[in-house]
Specification:
The structure is a homodimer. Chain A contains nine helices and twelve strands. By secondary structure, chain A is of the alpha/beta class. A four-stranded parallel β-sheet of chain A has the order 1-12-10-11, with helices on both faces. In chain A, strands 3-2-4-5 form a four-stranded parallel β-sheet, with helices on both faces. A four-stranded parallel β-sheet of chain A has the order 7-6-8-9, with helices on both faces. In chain A, strand 8, helix 6 and strand 9 form a beta-alpha-beta unit. In chain A, helix 4 packs parallel to helix 5 and helix 7 packs parallel to helix 8. Helix content of chain A is 40%, strand content 19%. At the A-B interface, helix 6 and strand 9 of A face helix 6 and strand 9 of B. Strand 9 of chain A pairs antiparallel with strand 9 of chain B.
């Protein structure tokens, strides 16, 4: 069948940097003790590939005694960095520069006297790392969280980098209805994520069926799939080619493919190659 | 018929101060040349009453050569104050303290490097005065004005004091969708106006018919009438008792009365007294 790939998709510079640093660290390591604190990216296939090269994924600092620790692109809270320093392990920081910027801005806004509000998912490691940078920060995901907002106060607002501009705008509007005295909002959205979203939406309109490739835990991939679904009902979020239930291709002639920022090129290539090889049903 | 008056309605402190200053200035004046630059408040009845006491309303500074000039509660642009100073006339400044605050904030935000955005009606004198304080300020009233917003820039946002929190929130949400780098929003809404709105909405639900008293040019009265209409279809915006088409009272038992911030008490009293005197039809 005919396959169109979104103009912008797959690894963003932040993820590419994290993978490069992981490969470099593993190549130079002689101890056999290179750890990632949490999965280095939200992509099981890539995590498995790096595990075969020696990367050990742990979920808690207590599991690390020595060796080298990779800080993944989502970053970690300063308190965790301090715990690692106390242990004397080597730290390789692969935090995305844009995520670092959110952390820096949250600290700066707090110094300026603002109460920090983060628009995002409170369970996402990026958001948890930002919360760790700003004491008493409040995370709001949707309108049901608005009662958490401090009243009649100065609010300093940042956003999880992978949220959509639509979600950011909607929540700013909701905050705008609240009793605030002052609002300082720094646009911390990642342009890479926005470009992937725009590119995916435009592709959705040209195809019969749309595939969004990426980890099921990947916030930016899920957001991408959610958006695509709005523009093409026949949208499927797959981790890889093996996830595809081929019956959904029945009657479809043109497939669109996009992929989250944490989806490696080889995963995209396999899906595109295999779809291309299929006769149109 | 039974008449319920909104808990909060009529003159706000800013308007009361302007009227007090006008009366005091007229009482002390011996020249017979006391001017108001534009109607002192948006209420024809009160303007007529003060005209009988000697207040001359002019629409242009060119009409003033000497004497005393009252700056109304909506304020004027600094450039106009300068023109008056050049003429050597005495200036009595009755600009509402909250309007002065918007002007001060707009200037301060501009000094901090923000492009000024005013949410409000560009034809309203309060907004025009704020525009006069901040070079290249952009006024946005609704979504159709969003293309006026500077792109990828630092925006400093203030609001016309008499807008509703709903409108403020809606427009902040719309601005939040745009390509901004940073947003600093100061809540410049007047609490008096908000309290009048809340009080009117609660009254709307208890009455068969609702009267909103105030000048047809009065922004806060129009906003009040607009909101009441949403909560009680039988809402009528009247300037005074004479405006009332009595046929609308047919079948109504309980009337609600509210009034804008520029509506004098005597106008409210006449309406309430006359409605009270009517037999229920």
């Amino acid at each position: 069948m005919k396959v169109l790939v979104a103009e912008k998709c797959g690894f963003c510079p932040g993820v590419r940097n994290a993978i490069d640093l992981a490969e470099k660290t593993l190549a130079q390591d002689k101890s056999g003790m290179v750890y990632s604190l949490g999965p280095i990216i939200h992509n099981n296939d890539e995590v498995s590939r790096l595990a075969k090269l020696g990367l050990k994924t742990v979920n808690d600092i207590d599991e690390i005694e020595s060796g080298t620790v990779l800080i993944r692109s989502h970053g970690v809270a300063p308190e965790q960095i301090n715990r690692l320093k106390v242990k004397g392990v080597k730290i390789v920081d692969a935090t995305c520069v844009l995520v670092k910027r959110v952390q820096r801005i949250a600290k700066q806004l707090q110094r300026e006297g603002y109460k920090i509000v983060i628009i995002g998912d409170e369970n996402h490691p990026e958001v948890q790392a930002v919360v760790g940078c700003a004491k008493d920060a409040v995370v709001i995901t949707d309108e049901s969280d608005l009662d958490k907002l401090p009243q009649n106060d100065k609010l300093g607002v940042v956003c999880q980098t992978t949220q959509s501009p639509e979600q950011f705008g909607r929540m700013l509007g909701a905050i705008g209805h609240s009793n605030f005295n002052e609002l300082k909002v720094i646009n911390t959205l990642c342009k890479e994520a926005i470009n992937r979203q725009k590119s995916a939406i435009s592709l959705c309109k040209q195809v019969d069926i749309m595939f969004v490739l990426g980890g099921l835990e990947s916030a930016n991939t899920r957001k991408l799939a959610e958006l695509c679904k709005k523009h093409n009902m026949a949208t499927f979020h797959l981790q890889n080619w093996n996830d595809l239930d081929k019956s959904v291709l029945h009657g479809k002639n043109i497939a669109g493919v996009t992929a989250g920022a944490s989806t490696p090129e080889w995963i995209i290539n396999i899906l595109v190659h295999n779809l291309n090889s299929l006769d149109t049903w």
